[in-house]
């Protein structure tokens, strides 16, 4: 039997943790406070309401035909991770429901607080799952198939499936609970994006200046940051330009502006938000703090 890589073990463990958090949100908040959800989880909530079917069991059964469809479209690794995610989600949906902790979070008196907590926890859980290359099955499989076979973006398919499920959820929810569900869904998407993209937000900076050599030298000397020279073409004079591209942390922006202004007061600077930066100085080997470098 081949030995599992350390990275694979970490990914599988984090997928399990993410599914546990997502299941806790469904069992602890969404179900008791009658908040709907999209995809297979939303269908499981409907089945639980009308027929009191265990959500873990219904999630597992509903995913089986989708997995069979996905056999021809998912890679071996994606299929294994998807099966693992489905098993973990189904297990924790049954596990959390048996614990007294569920009864300790009765938030029915405050639907707004319920929506905030449901969206935050669900977004955190799913964000962790997707960040570590996993899925929780369900509509994610349909999105993948539709993207390959029909050329439709996965986001459009997920939105359509969620809309259909939420529409059917109106069979047991009033408009008030559905509005709070939409609040939870919006917050879920924002938190999930935040977790997937990384909590650390860097800044990508484009600098256009004839003094690019001296600016680049000072950035390397004073900030100890790597940079790249890009080739550009001036729009007015059609002359060749050198564009400096460098990624810095938000707190280093004032220092970078100071360097550029010192070398060329007329330089053009464009600052772009970078959701995640990996590599030396960001994900490892972080740079020390610097003090102002120029004095008048």
Quick recap:
The protein folds into two domains: 6-197, no CATH class; 202-274, Alpha-Beta Plaits (2-Layer Sandwich).
Give the topology.
Elements: H1 6-30, H2 39-51, H3 55-70, H4 76-97, H5 111-131, H6 139-149, H7 154-169, H8 175-197, E1 202-208, H9 212-223, E2 228-233, E3 240-248, H10 253-263, E4 268-274
Antiparallel strand pairs: 1-3, 1-4, 2-3
Helix pairs in contact: 1-4, 1-5, 2-3, 2-7, 3-4, 3-6, 5-8, 6-7, 9-10
Note down, in words, how this protein is organized:
It contains 10 helices and 4 strands. With 296 residues, it is α+β, with helices and mostly antiparallel strands. Strand 2 and strand 3 form a beta hairpin. A 4-stranded antiparallel sheet has the order 2-3-1-4, covered by helices on one side. It has 2 domains: 192 residues, no CATH class; 73 residues, Alpha-Beta Plaits, CATH 3.30.70.
């Amino acid at each position: 039997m081949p030995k599992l890589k350390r990275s694979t073990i970490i990914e599988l463990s984090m997928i399990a943790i993410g599914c546990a958090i997502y299941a806790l949100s469904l069992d602890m908040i969404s179900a008791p406070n009658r908040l709907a959800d999209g995809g297979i989880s939303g269908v499981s909530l409907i089945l639980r309401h009308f027929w009191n079917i265990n959500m873990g069991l219904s999630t597992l059964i509903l995913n089986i035909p989708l997995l069979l469809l996905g056999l021809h479209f998912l890679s071996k690794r994606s299929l294994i991770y998807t099966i693992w995610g489905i098993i973990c989600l189904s297990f924790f949906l049954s596990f959390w429901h048996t614990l007294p902790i569920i009864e300790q979070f009765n938030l029915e008196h405050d639907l707004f607080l319920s929506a905030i907590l449901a969206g935050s926890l669900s977004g955190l859980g799913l964000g962790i799952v997707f960040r570590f290359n996993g899925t929780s099955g369900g509509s994610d499989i349909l999105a993948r198939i539709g993207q390959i076979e029909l050329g439709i973006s996965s986001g459009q398919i997920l939105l359509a499936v969620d809309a259909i499920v939420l529409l059917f959820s109106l069979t047991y929810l009033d408009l008030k609970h559905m509005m709070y569900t939409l609040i939870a869904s919006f917050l879920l998407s924002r938190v999930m994006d935040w977790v997937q993209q990384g909590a650390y937000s860097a800044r990508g900076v484009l600098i256009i200046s004839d003094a690019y050599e001296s600016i680049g030298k000072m950035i390397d000397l004073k900030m100890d940051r790597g940079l790249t020279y890009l080739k550009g073409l001036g729009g007015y004079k059609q002359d060749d330009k050198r564009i400096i591209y460098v990624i810095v942390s938000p707190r280093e922006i004032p220092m970078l502006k100071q360097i550029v202004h010192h070398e060329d007061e007329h330089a053009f600077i464009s600052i772009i938000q970078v959701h995640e930066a990996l590599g030396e100085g960001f994900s490892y080997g972080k740079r020390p703090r610097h003090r102002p470098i120029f004095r008048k």
